[in-house]
Sequence to fold (223 residues):
Amino acid sequence: MTDSAAGPWLRTRTYDVMWCVTFTYGIGPEEVLSRYGADPRDARLLAERDAGPLYESHYPDGSVLRAGALGDWSFCFEDCGIMGILPGPLTALSWRTETLALHQSAKGMSRFAHWRDGFRSEGFEPGFPGTRGEPPHPWWDAVQARRDATGEEYPGLVPVLEAIADHTGAVPDADTLAGPLLTLRLADTLCTPDPVPYPLPRPRSSGRPLGRFLGRVAGLPPR
Fold:
């Protein structure tokens, strides 16, 4: 992915609007919605312009989830939502696989996280070394290298999406997000809850998933 793909999308997401996107390997869009806590049977294939009434329904409770597939990965995008950066959905999404999450708040702050098999392996605010965490931190290194390559003091989130694209092979561009995606509104009370207590000890390989998630657990091929 190049700036020509990421730039137009990011420029449509202004700093006074929060949004969130997740990428999960090896499961389909229906399963993604299920792991958020939704019933995928409630989803409709809607273009962005046709999803407007869902945003207005019961606002501000809940979040509009829009899920689609990109090769071996599935993504879920939220405008004005934060479910995709919460521990509950990320625990469920990443169970027996891996999930990447990127969130921008309404105040312009951003967060990136990488989760694997129900646990966060890395998380930080791009461009702020104090949030980097202990080494090794391959995702921080990958994002920072791309930030440095721009030569800009504030390159925005394009370097983060480039790092994600290098790992996944693709990210949704503006046309993908505007086109038809599996869409539904999920109430806050139905969102997959955080594990309790959190964090929990790492389970044995035969352990059960943390938190609540609906639907089957996909078997993943070796990578």
User: Anything to note?
Assistant: The two ends are 22 Å apart (CA to CA). The first helix runs from residue 3 to 12. Confidence is low (pLDDT under 50) at residues 205-223. The beta strands are 19-25, 44-46, 63-70, 73-79, 98-104, 110-116, 119-124, 181-186.
